[in-house]
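Field reference: "sequence" (input) and "structure" (output). Example, Surface polysaccharide O-acyltransferase-like enzyme:
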Amino acid sequence: MRLYYLDQVRAIAIVMVVMIHAISYTNGISEALFTVVQQLTLSVAVPIFFLVDGYLFCLGKSPDQRTERSFKLKANFKRLVIPWISFTVIYTFCRYIFEVLGVVEANVINVAGLYELFMKMLGGVYSSQLYFLLSLFIVRLAVTSIERLYNFSSGLLLLFAVSLAIAYSVFNTELSVIRLTPFGIDALQNSLWGVSFFMLGMFLGLATFEIKRLMPVVTAVFLCSAYGVYQWNTDFIGLMFQYSYMLFLFIGFMHIPKINWLASLGKNTMGIYLLHSPVLLKLLAVVFGALGLKGISGFAALSLLTLATSWIAAGILVRLPQGKAILGSR
């Protein structure tokens, strides 16, 4: 039985991801609007995907752990690494074509040696959103490989999630984080960031109590921390806001009846995530710029059109030979 509330919360997350990228391509955006959109989307969009994946990870556990572990690793490779490789190559080639045609000014590829080109591809320089796929694979690989993790109690998982979140926040702000890739976004570094959200999802999946009962408490913490971010915006309050906001959306959708179009959107998040940026969004932004669309109306229109176009494109691609493999679809 498919859990429609997970599809719906993922749908909200993918809308946020598209908004994050679309606002950077929109002209005439005020600093205040940019800050608000970033605060409401960037803080939870990708973490929601980690959270939902951790939740599903626990729900899908099998008594035959060794067989299940081997199966999951193969499935994870096909679902995450194959699309990451495919679209990294595709978007790097597109970047090269754009540079040859003079569509983009910076000659990022033409001046790079093979090593630098490889490291930039690894760091997602030509396809910034793809880091998530490799990061999630690393998290799944680590969690699946540690046999004792299957025996963790929900309370211990929650303790680990909170500890990791605080430790990473301190480590990332107070110390110099070692980057394996000197360019772009480091997938390993982001897996260390995402594992706390994944473990929080595991905690929710293993919870022996009715999760819905947490809604009043989560709502109160979310509203108080939102006010705190507006007034003081300290690191601790920011963490409280991020986690309570994420839980507010996750648990909130457990209370909401199924919305067919939203659930359908949530089933296609992988395709939309892979296709919406950078090429499609860049082309649409050029058209919007030529038409003079800017400001909040231009941002809203660009976000909606990018979402709809990538949704349609994903539906077409999945029907083509090898389309499912490229998109990591089951």
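The chain has two domains: 1-43+236-330, 47-208.
The two ends are 16 Å apart (CA to CA).
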